[in-house]
Amino acid sequence: MATDSHLNPSAEGSFDRAFREYGGRLDLSTVHPTTRDGMQGLLDYYRWLLNAARFADPPYNPTGNLTVDFVDNAEVNATAFVSNQLELIGINWGLVALIYQAFYLLMSSPTVLPNIGDAEVEKAEKRNIDALLQPQSWKLMESLLPKDGDRVRVAQHLAWNAMAFVFAHEVSHVCRAHLRYLKTTFGIDRHVEYRTVRLSESQARTLQALELDADTAAAETNLILWTKLCRRGTFPLLTEVPPLTTWSLSLSMFFHVLDMKTKPHESALRSHPKPAVRLLQVSYNASDCFGELEFPDAHRCIGEGWGIIGKWWQQNELSAHSLWELDEHLDRTIDTLNELRSESGELIGVLRQLAEERNHDIRMRKKYDNHILNTEPNKTDAGDVMLT
How far is the C-alpha of 262 from the C-alpha of 257, rounded, in Å? Predict the structure, then answer.
């Protein structure tokens, strides 16, 4: 696994071939310089995280077999699958663009985090807010930047965290053996986040339980790292805001955006729980994990993050199907969450066993590959090359 900012040519070629039907690997040299630097920074972080095994259980990439890159596709989506024994994660640039657009628009509002930068120079224009509903483009995103430079940087920090969560979620599908489970149970060989094919009720419920498991694992890793970075002063403009508040704000915006982009459809068609259920789960999980130990005001901080996004969202009259119903149908949402928690819990033992099998299989393949590479070829009388 490459640990620097670039994949080796062989890995690049394998990724491009595997994702050809989705658009292939994104050539970052074609992207606007400002955006390109940010996306390269995301890739650097993703590849570093793959080697930071201490942050996940089971470890993300103990075998160094996982490759991640961006896909040249404007759709809001991400995909994880195995191709020729390579484990691959592809994140569409359309998803990255949409998330950054949302945070640029958020920080262009003078009432959001008004103590950061010079909020008075900002003006939230309705025509810009409406851009969230339009197809993504790099040119559009550059036109949505807040006027104050500090607020631009904060928008980028918050968007970076949301995309870090996306990656942690995707890699959980691979390393927590969700892909292997789907292959053996339903014959599904890849996990496309937002699929259009019809699912059976059994498939839908299983996929939703796996999504909840991926969200839970991703939220824990994401919050630990975000908190560490905030406390180290990595984001100096955010030092006056509790890390859990900015983390909650970041993920709340992410799930609001998903809610806006996801049309309501029948439960049998859904591969994911509703965004309201997912946001509730990651928030509960954060509070349970850190409320007593590191965040005595966890519930208040999470509520502040939710509140900032909810207020901004409603002020701008943006749609959010399930999140707008959350207050009215909270009991029903909690019941749905508890049902999925139960189903997810029942899968944990099986998934852990499959994860161990995955790691064992990859290690065995690498041992075999190393043996072949380190073996001298012998010439046969016929002039063929034979490896011994």
Answer: 9
DSSP state of 263: P
Strand runs (DSSP E) across 211-351, as ranges? none
CB proximity list for 46: less than 8 A, separation 6 or greater? 68, 167
Tokens 């199907």 -> residue: 321
For the chain, which residues make up each domain, given as ranges?
Answer: 10-363
In 3-state terms the chain splits into helix, strand, coil percentages (rounded to 5) of: 60, 5, 30
| DSSP 8-state class, residue 62 | T
**Cβ atoms of 38 and 208 closer than 8 Å:** no
Tens of pLDDT, residues 217-267: 889 888 888 988 998 999 999 999 999 999 999 999 999 998 887 765 544
Name the token pair of 356: 């161990």
Q: What stretches of the chain adopt beta strand conformation (E)?
A: 66-71, 78-83, 86-92, 190-192, 377-379, 385-387
Report which of 258, 46, 34, 230 is spatially closest to residue 149, judged by C-alpha positions: 34
Model-level pTM? 0.83
pLDDT digits (tens, 9 = 90+) for 119-154: 999 987 776 777 776 766 666 777 788 999 999 999
Least confident of 76-90, 119-133, 291-305, 367-381: 367-381
**Tokens representing 134?**
């339009």
Q: Please confirm whether the linkage preceding 296 is cis (ω < 30° from 0).
A: no
For residue 80, the cross-strand partners are 89, 191
Q: Report CA 217 to chain centroid distance, whole Å.
A: 11
Q: Determine the Cα–Cα distance for residues 130 and 323; give it in Å rounded to an integer.
A: 19
How would DSSP label each residue in 129-144? Answer: HGGGGSPP-HHHHHTT
Sign of CA dihedral 275, 279, 280, 285: positive
